[in-house]
Amino acid sequence: MSGAVERLADVGYAAGWSLVRHLPEGLARGIFDGVGTVAGRRGGGPDQLRKNLARVLRCDPVEVPDDLMRDAMRSYARYWREAFRLPSMDMATAASRVCMPDADQDRFRTALDKGKGLIFALPHSGNWDAAGVWLVQNVGEFSTVAERLKPDTLFERFVRYRESLGFEIFPLSGGQTPPYQQLTARLRSGGVVCLLGERDLAKHGVPVTFFGEQTRMPAGPAKLAIETGAALIPVHHWFTGPETSQISCGEPLDTSGGIEATTQALADVFETNIAAHPSDWHMLQPLWEADWSQSRRRLIEEGGSR
């Protein structure tokens, strides 16, 4: 991305956070729903999203239903509407719009009460920030990692946004201390860590089979769980109504098989959950090896040296 495009993106996000929060809720919903509908119109939508959803449906990209593309783009637009409005909302009200069944809450609270820490791993589904607000309001602060975006002003804008929601943010790169060390410390003190787990940002993840094809997923969730003894629990978030959503919380994963087996087990749970709610999976980037760019292939071949 060129410097000019990066600066334009920064200005656009700044405008979103400045303007959308002041719109009446119904008007904001109508605008973003309309944008999503237009973006996902017949035969439309991002090509990469269509390819990714084709893997979920086990079909050719041209066979992905138009209504699924429309719903997916409306869901993606909703994510941004909520993101722009969350900082100005009452956090208790925002959390009240998110549901987690009692059985799921009992499951993760039992794991947390053991005092060894808890890792929630989830894919880019629904609105992970809204899910985080629910967690802060019901459990307390948690720690997570943020990709270092460019320009720095945009990265700092996203950090301030998530810190305003009550999250503790560690930069994926460029920080004074590697995030892995900081996350380990939080877990050893019995804290909670949340990690988005299906996209390998560091470019040296664990090979897994996902929807029948090869890709790589981050080793971090499994590695942290194995080294600290923290419970690793797969989580999913999806939209249930115009302003409501739900979180599911799975059983803690067995980590005795090592990092590779644990990461594959996490991928298997993600696969099941995404297949159940495909329109809310916001994966617009290349994910599978077959879609990787030549530069990424070279990076993987070189051992992820960057």
Number of strands: 9
Please give the radius of gyration in angstroms: 19 Å
Q: What count of helical segments does DSSP give?
A: 12
The geometry reads as globular
> Could you list the spans in which at least 5 consecutive residues all have pLDDT below 50?
none
Report, as a whole number of angstroms, the end-to-end distance. Answer: 17 Å
- Overall pLDDT level: 93
The helix/strand order is: HHHHHEHEHEHEHEEEHEEHH
What does this structure look like?
It is a single chain. The protein has 306 residues and is an alpha/beta fold. It is 49% helix and 14% strand. It contains 12 helices and 9 strands. The strands form 3 sheets. A 5-stranded mixed beta sheet has the order 1-9-8-2-5. The chain has a two-stranded parallel ribbon with strand order 3-4. Strand 6 and strand 7 (213-217) form a beta hairpin. Helix 2 runs antiparallel to helix 4 and helix 10 (220-228) crosses helix 11 (259-276). The longest helix has 20 residues, at 66-85. The protein starts with a helix and ends in a 5-residue tail after the last helix.
